[in-house]
Amino acid sequence: MDHAADALRTDLMTITRYVLNEQSKHPESRGDFTILLSHIVLGCKFVCSSVNKAGLAKLIGLAGETNVQAKQKKLDVLSNDVFVKALVSSGRTCILVSEEDEEATFVEPALRGRYCVVFDPLDGSSNIDCGVSIGTIFGIYMVKDFTEPTLDQALQPGKNMVAAGYCMYGSSCTLVLSTGSGVNGFTLDPSLGEFILTHPDIKIPKKGKIYSVNEGNAKNWDGPTAKYVENCKFPKEGSSPKSLRYIGSMVADVHRTLLYGGIFLYPADKKSPSGKLRVLYEVFPMSFLMEQAGGQAFTGKERALDLVPKKIHERSPIFLGSYDDVEEIKALYAAEAKN
User: In what residue span(s) does the Fructose-1-6-bisphosphatase class 1 C-terminal domain sit (predicted)?
Assistant: First the structure.
C-alpha cells in the first residue's frame, strides 16, 4: 500500500469544494460569488502568513500613520492593501468599505461586479505585540445597479447581507463562514495550503455559562447592562454564577461564544453613548453568523440586523450570543423602557 497516496485524503471538504457545492444548489448562479469568495480566502491566507512572521519581519510597531479609528499598525496597513487588491482584482466588486479607510472605495468601471464588501482587515491589531488572536471580519451585500454604484448601496441593514464571516489568526488559522444557510468553520492546513472543513454546521448552545465584557467600563454602564452582569455574578434561585472570559479581540471573543455558548456584550456607556463597535464590518457580520448558528444579536433597542446605518463608520452597542442569554438582556431593556 502506498502510504503517500493514503496520506492524500480525497474525502476532505476544502472551502473551495464547499463553495462550489453551495453554488450547484443555485442553477441560476454564474459563479461570481464563488470567485469573490476565493479572492477573500486568498487574502486571508496571505494575512495569516504575514501575522505569523510579523515579529521576524519587523512588521510590528506603528507605521506612523493614523487611521480613522486610532494609531495604525504596520500589519493593519499591509492587511488592508492585501484585501483591497484581492477584492478589486476579483472583478466582482463595486464598493469596498474598510475600517482602515475614511472613505468607501468605488471600483473602476472596467473591474466592477455586483457585490459590495465591508470588512475590518485586521481586528484587534492592538493585540499583535502580545500574541493574542486577531482576525479579519467581512460581510457581503449584493448591489442591484452596479454600473453606477452609490454610497447608499453600502448602507444597507445587516439582514440584506448574502454572506458574512471572519478569519481568526491564532494557534491555528480558522475561517468561519455563512452564506445564509448555517455556519461552517474551516481550518487552514499549512501542509496543503488549503482550508479544510473542521466545524460543520456550527450551532451555538441555547444557553451558555460564560459572559464576555470589558468590566473596566462598569462605572459608565446603563441600568440593564449593570443588572445583567450583576445577575451573571450573583444569580438568583441558587444557580451557578457565569464565568467571565474577555480577550479584548472581537474575533476571538465571538469565536469562543459561538463554539461554547454564552454572551458577548459591548454596551453603550457614558463615555461611548453610541457604543464602540462599528455597525457595517463588526456588528453586522458577527450578528449574521450568530443568528445563522441559532443565537441572537440585539443592540439594546432592536434586532441588530434590522439597524439601518447612516454612515459607513457608524457605531452601535451590541449584545450577541446564546438565544436564552440574549433573551434575558432583552427583557431587562424592555422592563426599563416600560418604567
Answer: 204-333
